[in-house]
Amino acid sequence: MTTSDRPDVEERDFRRPPGPPGPPPVSNVWVYNGRAYDLSEWISKHPGGEFFIGRTKNRDITSIIGSYHKDPEKIGKMIERYALDRRALPEDIHPKNNAPDFLFKEGFDSWRDTPKYRFDDKNDLLHKVKARLKEPAMAAKLKRMDRLFDVVAVLMVIAYFAVQGLRLSVPAWMPLPLFVFLMVVLRSSLAGFGHYAIHRAQKGMNKIYTNAFDLNYVALSFVTADGHALLHHPHTQSEVDIKKNVFTMMMRVPRLYRVPIHTLHKFGHTVTGMTIRLLDVCRLTSKVGVKDMYGTWGGALPHFIGSFGVRFLLVAELVLFVLAGDFWAWALQFVITLWISTFLVVASHDFDVDTEDLHTDTEDWGVNQLEQAYDLTVVGNRYVDCFLSAGLSPHRVHHVLPYQRSGFANIATEEVVREEAAKFGVEWLPPKSFFGDRFPALVKTYLMSRSHEAEERDWGFVREHCSPTALKTCAVYTVQGFTGIGTV
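== Fatty acid desaturase ==
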């Protein structure tokens, strides 16, 4: 449903007034259901953590409130105390959601292009599902599943350090093939735990746990939590969903060079780049003001401690393997983990299809989520796949209920969502195989397609790989990895 489809929004509201040169100014305004609010005082009070409020300044948070809360109507009434008693204006909304410009298509404007959904229809799919989950027996079951999920995660942390320790101390007891296999599995699985930690309230120790998302070498959870939880989930497959563009910079590299150059780029991220980027975030936080982003330094420190701690851990592992004369064992698990995890990021949506080709005529947010996502299977067991897929195995349920705390809870909820979806005419398709279905398609899309420059200029194979600009792109992209620029 676009803004223009809503009768309460006039055409004149589309016209963003010309502003001063430079970046758009940031003001203390949040937009909810077309009205303006100042939630500055609520940042440090938010039960879900300061981060989610501080980061959404100058955005339309209607879909975020509607999708991430069990009772959004109650939240809507609560924030009325912070209302500015006026309708929202285009200048209240940052045109690029305070995110990097390159993640959006040319001409994107958040005021105009953010999808609008209603969450006050008690007969929509989301309300029907939530009503069944409130039943005491189901609520108790979900809590048990969350605890079991966390117990499994703790056991995997122990195994993670045990596997590396055994390889470093007694290599004969941990042969190279077994070591690589176990590290790829454990890194992906722990990243799956980190994925769900990002969706939990950003309070206390959970601010540290979210950084497990970084153990697969792909991203920096400290900054991608925003693009994933706040822009991808509420606005899936729309122009606001920046997750579909996270590898835009990699696609500038000529296809034959893409794997080695991107691998070097991410090696640079691991060694120095992400730490440099974290320091930039520290400077930005200090410049913008801790109060506006976290409420207090006490709210900010766990996020920083966790992020720097995981970056130190990844570098320390590399150093230990180098000193032990076992660098190639580390390198092999690094490369395989990196590329499998890279494709997992984009495997559960049709990001390889143009947004314009993904037509949906529903105004029901829950139905839209089911139509724009699908589940993955790796070995066929849902509880194992929940971790092997980095948390994406019960993926459709996860998109309808992004506030649930674990993949096990999503598995327990699947029957409810499937039964209610059937009443809305939604076909529940079987999960897609990661290795048998999605992996080949993603290799074709992300590794075998021409570079963006070759596509735009209609270059042939030789010129794509041998032109001075192509070689310069490879060199710059490699260096950017070590300085913390590019990808996610």
